[in-house]
Q: What sequence folds into this?
């Protein structure tokens, strides 16, 4: 008799978590906050409803909620308010280039709207590139990270390329700088899935730590804020945090040259000693040979007793030999007897006393 009412709430026609109330041939949806419409199908833009949201930042509407993109020096609290960073916290900044390929399965395409920060497309992509990425950073860097504030600097072509600035807050400057270096190490040229608030961004990441006047390590200098530090020789990394591995090329070359020079000097000294030894040996042999000859002449001919020996061939030969030996010894000493006419001897022998022999004055000489 058509006496039974059909439950129009089966299955639930209300969307986005709305609750259904059955009527007579009708139903009514009660929507959760942030959605409206007869079936709760429309997202409420909280940022348009209230201008007081997100002081010290910018309100960004999300599907079913909103979030704040805080200004530098402020941190996100409870996902929807920006509070000033406590003075006890220190910060370190990282610039990140995010090359997005797709968002929630849809291929990303650069449009002219992305040059306008107030456009719907810019804010939608800012959430995708910055909000999702900051959530990823919080997960990766762990409990030492107090906050990760992210701001989109610009969008450019190449699918859609976003340059974002991430400010990391921690309990001390050294911890903040360490977190910045850790974030830089997350850079990869391989696309990966970044997810937050039910959205998924497929993108590759290239991160670079920025310097200020305090965070350059190992003697590095910050000559241009917002860029990596200028590092002294041997140190590498955005903050010059990587110490030299082994000896530098300059040190190796210096050591090699030093060793080569030492060896060269050593060889030169050995050669000089050897040459001097050879010269002394030659002089000694000449002197011994003459002495043996003189002794033999004295024994066989009565050298000093036989005046007839004076002027003989043997005598002239002996005198010639003595003169040759003297010349050789003079040359060994670096002098030439032929160029010193004031010398009054032909040979360097030491003669006791003074005597005239063959017209030559012989005086005692000591070497």
A:
């Amino acid at each position: 008799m058509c006496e039974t009412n059909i439950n129009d709430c089966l299955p639930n026609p209300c969307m986005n978590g709305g609750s259904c109330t059955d009527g007579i041939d009708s139903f009514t949806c009660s929507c959760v906050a942030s959605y409206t419409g007869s079936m709760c199908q429309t997202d409420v833009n909280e940022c348009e409803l209230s201008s007081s949201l997100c002081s010290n930042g910018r309100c960004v509407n999300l599907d079913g909620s909103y979030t704040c993109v805080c200004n530098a020096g402020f941190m996100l609290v409870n996902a929807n308010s920006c509070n000033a960073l406590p003075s006890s916290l220190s910060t370190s900044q990282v610039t990140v280039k995010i090359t997005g390929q797709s968002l929630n399965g849809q291929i990303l395409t650069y449009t002219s709207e992305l040059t306008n920060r107030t456009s719907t497309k810019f804010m939608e992509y800012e959430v995708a590139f910055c909000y999702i990425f900051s959530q990823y950073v919080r997960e990766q860097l762990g409990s030492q990270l107090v906050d990760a504030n992210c701001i989109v600097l610009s969008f450019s072509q190449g699918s859609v390329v976003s340059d974002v600035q991430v400010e990391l807050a921690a309990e001390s400057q050294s911890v903040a700088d360490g977190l910045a270096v850790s974030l830089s190490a997350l850079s990869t040229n391989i696309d990966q899935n970044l997810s937050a608030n039910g959205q998924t961004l497929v993108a590759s990441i290239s991160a670079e730590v920025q310097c200020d006047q305090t965070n350059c390590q190992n003697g590095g200098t910050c000559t241009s804020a917002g860029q990596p530090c200028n590092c002294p020789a041997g140190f590498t990394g955005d903050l010059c945090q990587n110490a030299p591995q082994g000896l530098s090329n300059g040190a190796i070359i210096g050591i090699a040259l030093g060793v080569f020079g030492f060896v060269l000097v050593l060889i030169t000294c050995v050669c000089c000693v050897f040459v001097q030894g050879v010269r002394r040996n030659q002089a000694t042999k000449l002197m011994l040979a003459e002495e043996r000859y003189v002794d033999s002449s004295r024994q066989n001919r009565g050298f000093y007793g036989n005046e007839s020996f004076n002027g003989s061939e043997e005598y002239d030969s002996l005198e010639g030999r003595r003169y040759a030996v003297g010349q050789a010894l003079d040359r060994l000493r670096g002098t030439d007897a032929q160029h010193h006419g004031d010398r009054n001897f032909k040979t360097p022998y030491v003669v006791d006393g003074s005597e005239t022999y063959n017209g030559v004055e012989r005086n005692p000489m000591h070497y």
In short: Helices lie at 46-49, 120-141, 173-184, 249-301, 313-332. The chain has five helices and 16 strands. The chain has three domains: 1-44, 51-209, 264-303+310-362. Confidence is low (pLDDT under 50) at residues 301-310, 335-347, 351-359.
